[in-house]
Fold these 4 entries.
Entry 1:
Amino acid sequence: MAKIDVINQEGKVVSSLELNDAVFGIEPNQQALFDALKMQLAGRRQGTASTKGRSEVSGGGRKPYRQKGTGRARQGSIRATQFRGGGTVFGATPRNYSYRINKKVRRLALKSALSEKVAETALSVLDKFEVAEPKTKTFVSIMEAIQAPKKTLFVVGQNEDVQNAYLSSRNVPDCTMMRSDLINVFDLVHANKIVMTSAAVKEVEEALA
């Protein structure tokens, strides 16, 4: 098992932690990562694009001219698709783009994303958050001490009291904080660095190992 240093809010090493190789040390599966990302991005689509067919466009109730004798092609409505102001053929309609992939593939994608961050030394472990009051300045100073760059993802344990830390982080651009049970492939891949608390690491290992 690989060992990683556990730091405090001042950036000082206070202990070490063994990472489970079954979660943080596998060979990243790029296909699983791709499938999971594609699924997440598809689920984010609004699917509200809408067009009107010829039956939905207003007007065109009467026949524009008589059937025979004009020399022109017969027409039943000026709202047919070939006319200006007519309906759209096979146009977009509101739909749900979301779909699901296999649970094993989702788990493999999460482990691949975490292992990739460990291999890139883009994962740090924090002992705990201790923020006395919600203050952005305090949180920014913590980020500077632990050398957290822009686009940092903070992962905390489900039972940790991090309300003040969460409120303090909301005004920091490109900074995200979430519980360990809410981690997903998009946020893991999108972040330049991941900072997890010791409790979060244990919970992730229990869930994915």
Entry 2:
Amino acid sequence: MRYSASHKVEIREKLIAAAGALSKKKGFGITGVDALMATVGLTGGAFYGHFKNKGELLEAIVDNEMRLTQAQFLNDESNPTPLRTRLQRYLSRSHLTHPELGCPLPSLSSEVARANTSVKATYERHLEELVANLSDAMPTPDPDRAWAILAMAVGGITLARAQNNPALQEQVLNACVEQAMVIAGKNGPNSTD
């Protein structure tokens, strides 16, 4: 039975989303094609009808996941979200315990580091956009400070996920929020910006 072109596009989009969640939770490199395809109810043999290779899927996952992360950091000018609120959402218990629902940077950056140049170019493009959004959220836009905040946030989630002790996890997350606000130029625990 032949499927329509739109059906193939829908399956591809579902696969990218489901494989992205699975990859963020379990790791892309160690997750086989069969497991990735099973996320949309297909066998591993159907994979090559959607992608040339696993690297092409990783690039599609990175592109999709980074667009979702950017949307979370974009500031709606009609209803601005303070930087502290954005950082608290990112450095949260929910993001810590549900990598499949969160940002791909803590989970997939090491995968991208081993990937081909096309995957890295997609990742880089999105990172630069994310840093520009963070920079714009500061009292005085500064890309260097935005890079530092992003690195601290991603590193904070990564370090906290690698610990068993919930109190230490919370200490890492809270310290990263506070120090990120200092870097942004909005220091002090009572700062709402």
Entry 3:
Amino acid sequence: MKKMRTDFKLKFQTTEIDYFASKYSYRISDQEVIGNAKHIKNRGYLTKNELQIIGEWKTPRSKSRIASNSEDFIKEVTQIAFSTTSEQLRIEILNLLTGVSWPTASVLLHFYHTDRYPILDFRALFSLSCEHIKSNDYRFAFWEKYTAFTRSLADKANVDMRTLDKALWQYSNEQQNS
């Protein structure tokens, strides 16, 4: 198997993170997705309805597939993901849910885990000079590097992970749609 190049490099200045984040606008507001985040973190798992909301926020195409998961299976899988100390298990177990792949799994960790996680998205990868990486390239080793890089970048810029994610998404949206 050919080794994938993962040289992350921000395409804009770290001092511009707040600027791009402030311009962020999405079809569904963050509040609709994170409204119960504190309650979910305290409870330690997602309900079927909560998973459907986050799935639709990430990609409406997954709605019917996510709906095919049972309430009990969603509870068990997300409870393990939110409680384990294994980084690999956290992200990979979420992929067992029908309609959830790496990007949606990353959203679940981003909004509902107590640790800081980035959202894995083609827009974020574009902004980090890794647009050559495609969804079939997603593996734990890549996820681990991506998470470490974005945490370090957020620390360097003195911003939270949500602000960084918004900036990465917005920069890409402007550059790729111009």
Entry 4:
Amino acid sequence: MGEDASFDVALAKKYGARILLVDPTPRAVSHYEAMKSRFGRSAEIEFVEGGTQPVEAYDLDGISASDLVLEPTALWTENTTLKFFQPENPEHVSHSIVNFQNNYRKDTAAIEVEAITLQTLLHRHGLEGQPIALLKLDIEGAEVEVLEQLAEQGVFPRQICVEFDELNRPGDKAFERVDRADAALRSAGYQCVYGNGGTDYLYLKR
């Protein structure tokens, strides 16, 4: 989510979908609260270029708090409290569990956040056992461990949109980690049906 929920709002409006937004970043939480104050209202201005959208640009007519729900935690492979490392550029919003932006170090500036598994997330929101139509992951490197765990545990969303953020900083470790996630998905029966040649990929379970 960060400070751009345009995809999530569009999905909720077009398909009447219930969307769980999972992001503990303080600026993301503030952005959601500003959005929430406008639920039920139409857009007043156009979207802007870049990663931060003014909340007045969202068409929230017909959207309620039950349609777009914020879970202010980090998605991870266990229920715990962990360090959420700040980005190199303080103007950027995205924090990271694996801290690939800082060469995977464990001693850079961080905040502490609650982290939960996907299964805990579903249980918390009464969605256990229900099919997941779409899982969208832009979680700054943590997608590798999360996807491996989903494949191991047999949690299979119909579609997985993933940004392999580590490919923004290509290197042997980044490629090895992304290859692991890709192999886990393919072994679980997923097919990669779209890739932009960079960081963004769509997997579909046939």
